[in-house]
Amino acid sequence: MSSQIPPGISQGLDYFASGNDNKEWLPLLPIKHYTVAHILQDDKVLLGYKKRGFGQGMYNGFGGKVEPNETPLQAAVRELEEEAGIKAPLRHIGVLIFIVAGAEKAFHIDIYYAEEFEGTVMDNRTEEMRPEWFSLSPSDGPGELPPIPWDKMWDTDRYWFPLLRDKRPFVGRADFDKNESGAFISRRWWYGTIQ
Ligand SMILES: Nc1nc2c([nH]c(=O)n2[C@H]2C[C@H](O)[C@@H](COP(=O)(O)OP(=O)(O)OP(=O)(O)O)O2)c(=O)[nH]1
After folding, report:
1. Which residues are near ligand 1 (CB < 6 Å)?
2. Buried b / exposed e across 140-172, counting CB within 10 Å, b at 16+?
3. Residue nearest ligand 1's atom 31 by CA
């Protein structure tokens, strides 16, 4: 555990979780804005299976790049509608600075959630994402929704998901290396809550 806040994120945070504290942080890079949005409802969370592009084969909230002349909130609402077919009154809950070794830009990811939505969650209609519900409670009886598929998600999401679930605002940083086969390996991470 390191209570030292990493470079590139705001000061005045309360330590929540960190890992690989003995590794160096990657050099800071200019940022590019992204969003990720989650629906949290009745002890379940809606995630999407990414069918193509960056993060292919993994589950994540719904999101993508913030386009020019859009606010991050507008982008998050648009991406949720494009990828899950629903409209939701999203609330901001976190910021994640995500840096991959060798990349040109750091991802500044605004993280959102909503507890209600309008419309019907799309089944498997887009080429981008396949929405699926997962249980937020750790113990699942037979016939319940599947547990969150941590092994098919960005490796450090498991450390901030409890904060999202409890709707506690947070800020964090996650650095990743790439191995010879192009897989992303978590290098160092730190998450803190906003006081
Ligand atoms: N949960 C989580 N999401 C992450 C991490 N790193 C990371 O880039 N993301 C998200 C941010 C973006 O929503 C998404 C990457 O953007 P993307 O590849 O989907 O964007 P895109 O260019 O396809 O987007 P677009 O065409 O839909 O605008 O992955 C991470 O560590 N955890």
Report:
1. 34-36, 53-55, 60, 63-65, 79, 98, 107, 109, 154, 157, 174
2. eeeeebeebeeeebbbbbebbbebbbeeebbbb
3. 154
Ligand 1 centroid to residue 22 C-alpha, Å: 27
Which domain does 179 fall in, by range?
27-194
Q: How many domains does the chain have?
A: 1
Q: What tens digit of pLDDT does each residue of 136-194 get?
A: 986 655 568 999 999 999 999 999 999 999 999 999 999 999 999 889 999 999 999 99
Q: What is the ipTM of this complex?
A: 0.94
Residue 118 lies in a domain: yes
Assigned domain for 12 exists? no
Is residue 20 in a domain? no
Among 31, 33, 38, 60, the mutation site with the greatest number of ligand 1 atoms within 8 A of its Cβ is 60
Q: Ligand 1 pocket: which of 9, 34, 188 to mutate (most atoms <8 Å of CB)? A: 34
For ligand 1, atom 17, the nearest C-alpha belongs to: 64
The answer to whether residue 8 is domain-embedded is no
CATH number reported for the structural domain that contains residue 83 in this entry: 3.90.79.10
